[in-house]
Amino acid sequence: MPVPSAYPFRPYQPLRVPVSEMERRSQLRYENFSQRRSVRDFSPEPVPRAVIENLIRVAGTAPSGANKQPWTFCAVQSPALKKQIRVAAEQEETEAYAHRMPPEWLEDLAPLGTDSHKEFLETAPWLLVVFRRIYEPQHDGSQRNNYYVNESVGLATGFLLAAAHEAGLAFLTHTPSPMNFLTRLLNRPKNERPYLLIPIGYPAPDAQVPDIHRKSLEDISAWY
Ligand code: IYR
């Protein structure tokens, strides 16, 4: 018998997937996801707002600490705002590449061919800016903390990116550092902190990606 609770519960019996079908689906999912690559050269081709709305809806289904759902997803389409974001990001990145990142970090980035130019911030049809909500302001003016905010927002963002890939879109998980300029440019409230900046769209027709490789199952797992 289920334990009685002060809060309402309801039955949950999602449709069972037969094991053979489970194997097939997980294999297909892996094959599809293994094709995903981070993209830095975008086509300006538009992506319908309805698609972005669905991706954000998917993100909102992620598990979160105490079901606080401590996230806000800002979708930026305005060319003027994208330009402001690019200018501010490039300012920080110029400083970062020239002075802030230690030689070892620059060495690790060399195979990716990145630099302080962030044209994709203007070219991609959408910029998704993910904010984590540290606390929730209460009606009486007090604050109530959220739990496992980084983990929760990471999961939600992962859900969103998986859905974007499945929808046939390309993206980059961009982390200009520091990114407080996003709080300012998007006029976000004090309880929100920028988490990730994600240009999303189609790759440019001549887009290239670095020839890098993924670790194998053996490399990333241990079995007991
Ligand atoms: N934020 C910089 C540097 C950078 C850092 C990491 I770690 C990367 O995987 C890629 C880039 C930039 O976006 O160029």
TrEMBL record:
Keywords per UniProt: Flavoprotein, FMN, Oxidoreductase
Domain Nitroreductase stretches: 35-202
GO molecular function: oxidoreductase activity
InterPro entries: Nitroreductase (IPR029479), Nitroreductase-like (IPR000415), Nitroreductase/BluB (IPR050627)
Tree of life domain: Bacteria
Protein name: Nitroreductase family protein
Organism this protein belongs to: Hymenobacter metallilatus
